[in-house]
Structure formats: structure tokens, C-alpha cells
Automatic annotation (TrEMBL):
Residues 26-45 bind DNA. Residues 3-63 form the HTH tetR-type domain. InterPro entries: Homeodomain-like_sf, HTH-type_TetR-like_transc_reg, HTH_TetR, TetR_CgmR_C. Keywords: DNA-binding, Transcription, Transcription regulation. This is TetR family transcriptional regulator. It comes from the Bacteria. SUPFAM superfamilies: Homeodomain-like.
Amino acid sequence: MASDTRDRILDALERLLLDVGLAQVTIEGVADEAGVSKGGLLYHFPSKEALLGAMVRRLGERSDAQMDEAVSGGSTAAQWYLQIPDSSSMDSEAALYRSMIAALRTVDGQHTEVQNAMIDVMRAWDSQLRAEIDDPVQAEIVRLVGDGVYLAALLGLPKPEPELYRKVVERLLGDDTDR
């Protein structure tokens, strides 16, 4: 039950971050949005900083689970990292996408716990890529391209032309038979 309440609170925080931004988010507002008392929220998260940090850590847990699922399904971490996010679907990918947008809205340089949690998430992704790709320069290129694709999706920029992007990923990951 406590886990359900924690998730309900974190989901409420994400919704508010997406709707009004970090400056307008208050403990009281999150409690109201989650349907819990302020005391109930503070039982789980003793401060706004702790609440924001927990949201980012949950993002990391969700992304780790998605990456593990993709890898166990025959994909690679690099292929997962380079996928174009789809905010229109209603599955776990869309939830991760919304969580990432909400988390990025919290990184303002003023919340140390949040900044550290975001760094931990990004380092975990980087570590997975470096473990999979022998060449550290290639691993860094994959990370930077994936970051750029995700940022473009977050900003609502047009998606790359699918066939061209497929060729980019193939070349980047060493399967360049179309050259």
C-alpha cells in the first residue's frame, strides 16, 4: 500500500511539473493532486528536495527495467538508447518519456539531491553503453546521438526521416551494409 501511495504522489508531481513547471510546484499542491494529506506526503518525502530526488530515482528504475527488457528481448542497450521516443503511445515508453520531461524540468542547479539523482541516472546509461561497446569513443558517440534524439523529441522537433535514421543507427552501431 505504501508503494502505491508513493507512486501516486510521484505521478502527481510529474503531472504538476508538466503542467505548471518547477517554480509553481508546492508540497501542498502535490498532496492535493495525489489525493493525500500534506502529512501523508511528508511521511514518504520529508522535503520537496526528497520528493524531486525520488521522482528522478524512479525514472532511473523505470529506464533500467525498460533497457533490461529490451536486452533480454534481443535488442542491445545501444539500440534501446538510440530509439526515437514516442510520446503518443500509452505504454511504458510513453510513461518513461513523460517522466524524463518532468525530471528535466527539475534540474535547475538549485536542488543538489535532484541534480545528483539525475547524474546517477545518466551515468547508469553511460555505464551500460560502455559495457556493451568496446570502443569508449564509439560508446560516447552513441550516448551523444541518443541524447540529441531524445532532446529533439522533448522539444517537439520533427522526427528524422525513418529510413535515413535507420541507416544512421546501422552505421553508428557498425552494421553499415547499406554504404
